[in-house]
Amino acid sequence: MPEFTLTEEQTSLRDLARKFARTEMLPRAAECDRTGRFPEEVYRKAHEIGLMNLNVPTAYGGAGLGLVEQCLITEELARACSGMTTTISANNLALEPIVLGGSEEQKQRILPPFCGRYNLASFCLTEPSGGSDAGALRTRARRSGDEYTLNGEKCFITNAPHADLYTVFATIDPELRHKGITAFVVPRTAVGVVAGKDEEKMGQRASSTGTVRFEDVRVPVADRLGQEGDGFSIAMRTLDQTRTPIGALATGIAQAALDYASDYALKRHAFGKAIAEHQAIQIKLANMAQDVAASRLLTWQAAWTIDHGQRGTLESSLAKCFASDAAMRVTDEAIQIFGGYGYMREYPVEKLLRDAKLTQIYEGSNEIQRIVIAREHLRAYA
Amino acid sequence: MEIAVLVKSAPDAETRLRANAAGTGLDTDGVKWVLAGYDESAVEQALLLKESVPGSRVRALAFGPSPRSEEVLRAAIALGCDAATWVEQPSDLAVDPILAARALAHALSTLPSDLVLAGKQSGDDEQGLVAAAVGELLGRPSFSGVTDLRFDAAAGRFTFSRAVEGGTETGAAPPPVVIGLQQAWNDPRTAKLPNILKSRKAPIDRLAWAGVAAALGEHAAARSTAARFRLPPPRTGAKMISYKTPEEAAKELVRLLREEAKVFP
Ligand SMILES: Cc1cc2nc3c(=O)[nH]c(=O)nc-3n(C[C@H](O)[C@H](O)[C@H](O)COP(=O)(O)OP(=O)(O)OC[C@H]3O[C@@H](n4cnc5c(N)ncnc54)[C@H](O)[C@@H]3O)c2cc1C
């Protein structure tokens, strides 16, 4: 049986993240949500104290943490501001293909200089014509001699307007479907990389999302990850690693909503007593507490499974899908407990609902998660 | 320069405090213990001096029960201290500030130190006795409530300020000295993640209580105890002011203070 007590090391990492979240992120969360400002000073500081590139092994300049530790940190950061957390986590998502699919030479060459100073990266899979059906992507990679020429457009790419490095999934031949997909590492400085503007978003507004166009971008063969056709597998194995922290991110949002709602319910009075003494409110809080606890446990289970060397496709889908749906329920009820104030921008809970919505969509929509869960589940009965 | 910094675990500011069943002290069940307040400032000061005087080393010392004392020592190492000494306090041993000072002074007598730094008081008991008593026991001058401590290498002495009634006093003293620091004037740094990971594996020197007790002889026991411990009564009657602009809120607050609370005419 796994243990549910954290080690002292895990506790001190969580405390570091909590302190950073409270002192650096939370005080700016409402302002960045209102204005959509990208708080670069927060990200620079996160890098300085070591809260970025958590998944990159220490040999290549990262923190080299396991998924359990990554989840503990991610939940604490997201409790303060999930938008800022998405910016920070997007580096892990963009670098994981290099960690998983890069050669030793590529890792040595690319990762230490990247991790050594403040840099952002983007994972470029989704295209305007579709995200879920990654096998149908259209960005083309044509080889001539020792280089490829990339042409195409990616959209909804986190960090794209600010990134220094892009991991790009392109096809050498659309007819081959997922067997043609190939992964490349493209620096921002490559000629023909055009990062579009920041999109206006419903939530997680401290993060930055945009398009990237590749116009005859020349990429040396040395910057291809794995072989031609390995890209789909690299992308899927990457998402197997990064999906679980999205469960932790959603848990952090839900925990914040539960914190605010519980505190408010004890202070707000109606009909002569605190609303927390009305059973209808107690039932809401009890349901919310169950959702938060179950989200956290599913997330820890997935992280633990993967840290113990298994692929964890089922466990990570269970965690991401449940925690993100739970975050929607919990933030919705938090608004309800706040009553009219909950609907007001001046109070912190409506932001949490807008932020939570994204967790059902990105890193594999929850419809796709359910397809995966059902497939893995039915396999045991077939 | 050899710098020793005394640190103590104190309840995290967010811990919900309760009295123990006997009503004589804090209920330590579920309390989260951290390096806090004055002690954080003391560690920061030690590190600033280390950075300004080449070849310096900082050793953190804690007298207290396990495991929380080792935890604050690891926190000090993660922040940049070079070494740590845990002076064991058996968990059932009653302690008062003078006993703590005697145990620490004993530990310090076995180590080189040009400067002993501490918070001017601990983050929890706030007696403010330990630094001064350590100075007395070591036969060294001690100063309390100190800010802006520096080492003047040319003159070979420490210079510092103290906030006193009506102004600021500046002082100077050659090593070795004992200094109790004022809190949070130096914006303590945050430990970096890789240093936290490294601190988990750092060695902590342990001075067993048996040896300390033997050295202290008849002084190895507390001579004062707390008779009663109470938390302040819960606050009541908070009034929320609803407002559209801060100006409006300020106006309403002044009106309430004048007309209802009658704190000024
Ligand atoms: C803020 C934000 C940040 C993002 N960051 C990144 C990033 O950094 N990198 C990146 O590559 N992408 C990123 N994305 C893209 C995201 O991963 C996609 O939006 C997502 O995968 C869904 O793709 P789509 O939007 O094209 O929707 P579609 O794939 O067109 O799907 C539309 C709807 O149909 C459903 N659907 C699709 N197929 C099926 C099916 N077989 N059965 C049932 N239902 C189905 C979907 O679940 C969805 O509800 C981001 C998106 C957002 C909003």
Shape of chain B: globular
Elements of chain B, N to C (H/E): EEEHEHEHEHEEEEHEHH
Give the integer mean of the pLDDT values of chain A. 97
The number of distinct helices of chain A, counting runs of at least 4 residues, comes to: 10
The largest sheet of chain B, given as strand count, sense and whether it forms a barrel, is: 9 strands, mixed
CATH fold name of the largest domain in chain B, please? Rossmann fold
- Estimated helix fraction of chain B: 25-40%
What is the domain tally of chain A? 3
Category from helices, strands and their pairing of chain A: alpha+beta
Bound molecules: flavin-adenine dinucleotide
The CATH superfamily title of the largest domain in chain B: HUPs
CATH names the topology of the largest domain in chain A as: Butyryl-CoA Dehydrogenase, subunit A, domain 3
Low-confidence stretches of chain B: none
Q: How much strand of chain A?
A: 5-15%
How many structural domains does the protein architecture of chain B include? 2
Q: What is the CA-atom radius of gyration of chain A, in angstroms?
A: 21 Å
